[in-house]
Description:
This protein is mostly beta strands. The chain has one domain (about 1-505): Porin (Beta Barrel). The protein has two helices and 24 strands. The protein has helices at about 1-15, 350-355, and strands at about 25-40, 50, 70-90, 90-100, 110-115, 130-140, 150-160, 165-180, 180-190, 200-215, 215-230, 240-255, 260-275, 285-300, 300-310, 335-340, 375, 390-400, 405-415, 445-455, 460-470, 475-480, 485-490, 495-505. It starts with a helix and ends with a strand.
Amino acid sequence: MRKLTVLCLTGLFILAFGIANAQDKLxxxxxxxxxxxxxxxxxxxxxxxxxxxxxxxxxxxxFGGNAYNxxxxxxxxxxxxxxxxxxxxxxxxxxxxxxxxxxxxxxPGGNTGKISDRGAFGYWGGDRAALEVKNIYxxxxxxxxxxxxxxxxxxxxxxxxxxxxxxTDGMAVNTSVNLDPVSLQMFWAKAVEGKYEAADDSDxxxxxxxxxxxxxxxxxxxxxxxxxxxxLWNPAPTAGTQRSDMFWFGVYADGKAGPVDLNFxxxxxxxxxxxxxxxxxxxxxxxxxxxxxxxxxxxxxxDVGAIGMYAxxxxxxxxxxxxxAGSATAxxxxxxxxxxxxxxxxxxxxxxxxxAVVLLGSWVNRGNTGWGTxxxxxxxxxxxxxxxxxGKLYAAVKPTPWYKATFQVLYVGDTTKHGNTFGxxxxxxxxxxxxxxxxxxxxxxxxxxxxxxxxIYKNLKYNIGMGYVFAGKGMEFGYTDPxxxxxxxxxxxxPWNVLTSLVYxx
Length: 506
């Protein structure tokens, strides 16, 4: 019914206001980028696909994994190719394709098994079916009305404060209204269709307003995920077995405040996940928040600044790793509450976060590595920041048009209760009786980074990111000794990461 309503409204736009005359000449534009990246690290995991409420580190980087305390190195590449078919200022169509080599030397079948060769154009010998469809949409301006209104229909990128909250691609109808100095965006998107005859769809509704106030740009938004199938597309037996209603509300401000540049965000999430038909623990309640502030002072060739971020963490006594109803917590009880800040299913905010090189992911390699880099395309996840807080100081200098260097230092803390966001250390290891209770630590660690940006040509840049972490107790791991069977704690060697990227844009 909702889908028919949106389509009918779109049709009424056309019937009510008529069809504008299109120009005869079609202008065809192409743009995109090609990159090549290197990763060289110790105890720094890849982006954590399929993550949940906690920042679970892949087993390969935990004690006993084959990369534990070892140096790892590999290369990756990505290409994006965008075509715009422009008929006029009021009418155009866009196709955006993506190709990945993850990593160079992919095995047959790519990174999704034998289903396809997605992400595998790095296969030796080439000839891979590695093309991915990113966007296909139509942009058109509603004619014959005094207020500028534009509509985007199709597979498009939905982005609201993308480094913190929403960055995803999906089928949507997106309407923008320009009432200078205020702009308004409203969208509806289809996440899951399900059965045509059943009310098992998952839909997304959003509204986003922003305005220019003096030297500041201020905005606010609200987004509602009505997920009648949750998790969205997980394999059986969990797919569509639960329901979820989730709301996100946010405000922000960007601009100049006297001599400094200011960025501020506050985001609140609220909702629930239900399992229909159950009388005992039928619901998990969600309620979390995140805030971030950045103050920078640019002066001639220099830029110095500070960033602070805080995001609420979950309680491991009340929250399972999946955050779904009926799932078990760390102490074996039913999960009832998620106090961690979470982002919607399929949001790639972690890839855009870019606040560090080791702990929180880096813009240098598109967020492909990092302890806090989490993704989940079926369920909600803590995103790049849930369960963490940090304070960051940085200083950048650009002595020439072709070179820039940035030094930054971060202190990262843990906000998860009765346990840790990353680490899994036991509170009482074998020396104290071997009780299986997780330790609650507050320090993740100190990170020191140095980033170089080199413009070889105007459209060809080479970036180098180097980071080292002095790990705190929040990055210790508990495990069961395979010989004695006792509970033991172990701390990996301090993590470090060296990243490079060569990027050609066109």
